[in-house]
Amino acid sequence: MAGRAQPVSALPGIGAAFLVAALILGTLGAVALRAEAGTGFGASDWAALRFTLTQAGLSALLSVGLAIPAARALARRRFPRRSLLIALLGAPFILPVIVAILGLLAVFGRAGWLSSLLGMFGLEPVQIYGLHGVVLAHVFFNLPLATRLILQGWQEIPAERFRLAAQLDAGPLAMWRLLEGPMLRRVAPGALAVVFAICLSSFAVALTLGGGPKATTIELAIYQAFRFDFDLGRAALLSGLQLLLTGAAALVALRVSAGEGFGAGLDRAVRRWDGQSALARSLDGFWIALSAAFLLLPLAAIVLAGLPGILSLKASVWQAAGNSILVAALSTVILLGLALPMAAAAAAGRAGLTELSGILGLAASPLVIGTGLFILIYPIADPFALALPVTALVNAVMALPFAMRILVPRAREVLGRYGRLSLSLDMQGWAFVRRVYLPRMRAQTGFAAGLAAALSMGDLGVVALFADPDFATLPLQIYRLMGAYRMEAAAGAALLLLMLSMGAFWILDRGGRWHAEA
């Protein structure tokens, strides 16, 4: 569609793309200029680098390793509420990190359910803080993602391949060698790269479950240099290192090719004749039950622990909740103001520039961008007074890559279907946007807005850099309550945050789809 006239101008989208690129590249440039190359890295910085790579590698291996049997079981079995379970696999993505951590503590912590069970047999309680705690939390967040990615690979094997294997009387080993093994060699490296890239940007998990200097990630070292030492030069150096790591990991994750698959089939329902034995059924049931319990028990723990404390929350918690709602609302408005015109520009033939700007957020962590913004703002204004708008802005930029993936395909479909007709009716510009583009983008807009609101509501990144003692969002307030060992109040606040974030996602997503369900 690059050479075809379009009823919507690409200029607003190009302008939005330039703003996003200027924000990200400008903050990265500020970090690079502020870095004092002569100082070099200390022993603690290299230790943070080693720990970051170690925990990311272990988290990726465990997440994908556990996802393979879980995805295989879901691919082979049909049972009631299967689609609901698969849908629930997406919940940890929008679950606030601090809420999940409290749930994990309630189940796996020293005073948690598992430790209480072990105590009944005279065994020592579980120690969750340190490397194993960080890895546990990352597996909780990324096991569902890895399972979805690998399950998609299984579902892409045509039913005819399984029918042919059954006609040839291929056993389980032959089925693995001919179909499942080649599929995993094609899909698993990409899943490993994606999970590894995500785990490199580990701030909130390391902040709460690290347990000391030996479990410090690079992002946590940036925060410590910034907040405790106010050493902007060291923070800038560490930010540059973090940028190189996340940029390289994101590039590998994007470049790892899925390769050629098994070709197209006739879209027949897949029947798995290789998984009918009692042993196969038992193993599949075990992996499905284990995955479901691992994901749902922490959520249940949050609900049970938070109910007694939610009605007795202090005014400071409700004020923090109000701040979180303001940040999420502002972040959602900024995101839509950027993403909708950028999606239209990409659909109108300017995909290269707009989509490149849209994915820049994958290469830079929010803490690095926050550090750059602080360096730029500090000489001319009080950065702590701008905590709310800065947090909302960075959250919007971080959600932009996901919003573009949601909006761009639908925008191309709308322009392809209605573009010529609108031009023949002389309906262009704002008239086309108001009458055709926005109404037919409503479902995708609602989904993107709900995702942005939920992610911003639960963010504990940039706000930790900019917030002063008199300002806090709800995730930051929960962290402060945990630091003061007020765990009942923290659990109540976590339940409130869970309801707010999930409620915001549900309201906005359903609001975008109401017209289709009426």
Using brief descriptors, characterize the structure shown.
22 helices; cell membrane; MetI-like_sf; mainly alpha; transmembrane; 518 residues; single chain
Structure in words:
This is Thiamine/thiamine pyrophosphate ABC transporter permease ThiP. With 518 residues, the chain is mainly alpha-helical. It is 76% helix and 0% strand. It has 22 helices and no strands. Helix 5 crosses helix 13. The longest helix is centred in the last third of the chain and has 38 residues, at 387-424. It is globular, with a radius of gyration of 24 Å. Residues 260-268 have low confidence and may be disordered.
Tell me the layout of helices and strands.
Elements: H1 11-34, H2 43-76, H3 82-88, H4 91-94, H5 97-108, H6 113-120, H7 131-155, H8 159-167, H9 172-200, H10 204-209, H11 218-227, H12 232-255, H13 278-310, H14 315-347, H15 351-363, H16 366-377, H17 387-424, H18 430-440, H19 442-457, H20 462-466, H21 474-483, H22 487-517
Helix pairs in contact: 1-12, 1-14, 1-15, 1-16, 2-7, 2-9, 2-13, 5-13, 7-9, 9-12, 11-12, 12-16, 13-22, 14-15, 14-17, 14-19, 14-21, 15-17, 16-17, 17-18, 17-19, 19-22, 21-22
